[in-house]
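Moderator note: this is an archived Q&A kept for reference. The question asked for a predicted structure of one protein chain; the sequence and the answer are reproduced below.
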Amino acid sequence: MTAPDALLLDLDGVLADVERSYRALVVATAATFGVAITRAGVLAATLAGDANNDWRLTQRLLADRGVHVPLDEVTARYQARYLGTDGGPALRETETLIPPLAVVEALAARLPLAVVTGRPRDEAAWFLDREGLAPLIATTVAMEDAPAKPDPAPVRLALDRLGVRAAWMVGDTPDDVRAAVAAGVTAWGVVAPGDDPAAAGAALLAAGATAVLPSLSALLDRLP
């Protein structure tokens, strides 16, 4: 295993607990179109891959059930509840930091950190700023910067911005792992809050993860 010159981190499910925001919104948005989707159904679709964009994932799950809706309409309903512009509570306010801040600080003291996320840039920045992570992150590759994972382009862009070739990446989905492996980066998996550990762990390993970590803090013991 190549020693890393940087660490790349997915945001949702690795740093941010989005069980009550992004994950819940796939179910909630589908319900506004009269379609019932279970949390287990969302997990199954996520583990199947090509599910890095929740708006497109929701649209696809609707289409699988015979309801064909333009992407912009799905996105508008999803975002209205996420941001609270529909008059209800902003679900993004439910997001919390998964690892202790001290763990991220310890990792940043060892190696440069990058966030490689499918979030829009402003939503990624909002979370990083709120949780005190922004000063620890050398660069953020967001939705606007590159094609979605499992395309390796966002991982390669993070490497270019950091000026390194050898890195480790931590992700919670097969798309994260496949993107890292395709970019020549060592991939580590973690199970996101709310996901089934057995199913998610098996999918991460099958996608090419070196191992599934019990937590992000376990990475500290793995670093050379």
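Archived answer notes: The longest strand covers residues 186-190.
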